[in-house]
Amino acid sequence: MDIKTEFEKLFDQKPEVTAVAPGRVNLVGEHVDFLDGFVLPFALKDVTTAAIAKNDLGVIRISSTNRDETIFEIPVAKIEPLTGEPWTRYPIGVIWSLGIKVGLDILIDSKVPIGAGLSSSAALECAVGTALNSLFNLELSLPQLALATQKAENVYVGMPCGIMDQSVSLMGVEGQALLLDCRDLSTQHIPFDIEPHDLDLLVIDTQVHHALVDGGYAERRASCEKAIEILGIPSLREISVEDFVAQKSKMDETTYIRAFHAVTEMRRVLDSVVALRAEDFTTFGRIITECHQSLRDNYTISCPELDVAVEIALANGSLGSRLIGGGYGGSAISLNKKSDTEKIKNEISKAFAAHGFKAPRFFTSLPSSGARLI
Ligand code: GLA
User: Fold this and answer.
1) pTM above 0.85?
2) Pairing mode, strands 176-181 and 186-191
């Protein structure tokens, strides 16, 4: 399918601009992006494409190749947060957040698995944002575009996400993981060159679909913010693990344990960077497994499918394995020797069948480029 031809068939005009933006895998640094933390994601090669042209109808007409040929129409004057067909809120939220007030025809094609913890929503927002940035000569920098697309998701969609997914979808670089400082959006590219070490980064999609707009994410974020308030510090990044633990009695158990995840996770990211720079994948693997344990036991956002995937990967030679993204489903990753990949996949599939879980999907992935015009 050629999106430009498809666009012309649907809207009777050619697209003026077409952009792609990828989903992401996060190596480490989970649920700390909204706390001024560091995160270490990379961009997937799977992308969402947005083809766009202006129209003079005063209406946004939007369609997706993933959902037959239905065209949703929203008058520009009626654009309002938290309204409209749920999936269209992501692209329309970006139009709203960029303050664009003219009619547009938009066709979306997503190759990023939806609801799999791989940031299909950020890919959609960033493809539309990149296209509009060019179409209207907005000249927004990548960090500015990341903030604008995050605002779309926070306010228009109503999901209080952090800045990681949009940042890496826009700023990812081939062969490198992105060390993002979520306080000022500064970045460093960290080589993640696992091929010469005969390693695979296996992504295990549990096929348990998550819906982050629902409660758990926001509740945990609120607990971490409560800890900051109780401790009277500007950010959880300002406190060492030791000082945080010493002040345990000031916090209720839920606040403490959730914020404990965040404080230790920030340290894990920095330790991971040291390990990756030294090409010490054994240490890096141990750290990401610790991340899973913390997400499971402290932050409590795992689910049986994710825990089984991680457990079986580790039992079959994985150097490190963990759930990624928002949690409650979606995907896990395993860093393992290439020669162990087939065995890990087979054993996870067998275990899923034995537990009566839906069959998982697998793919291996390496860091790819961020959003671009095509
Ligand atoms: C989701 C959010 C991100 C981030 C992760 C957890 O993907 O969109 O901002 O908080 O969860 O690290």
Assistant:
1) yes
2) antiparallel
Return the ligand 1 atom nearest residue 221 CA: 10
Query: For residue 186, which amino acid is it?
Result: S
Per-residue pLDDT of 322-365, as tens digits, reads 999 999 999 999 999 999 999 999 999 999 999 999 999 999 99
DSSP string, 149-216: HHHIIIIII-----SHHHHHHHH-BTTEEEEEETTTTEEEEEE---GGGTEEEEEEE------TTSTH
CB 106 within 8 A of CB 73: no
Is there an atom of ligand 1 within 6 Å of 325 CB? yes
Closest CA to 155 of 216, 65, 218, 80: 80
Active site residue 165: yes
Q: What structural domains and CATH numbers belong to the chain?
A: 3-190 (3.30.230.10), 192-364 (3.30.70.890)
Identify which of 165, 291, 302 to mutate to test ligand 1's pocket (most ligand atoms within 8 A of the CB).
165
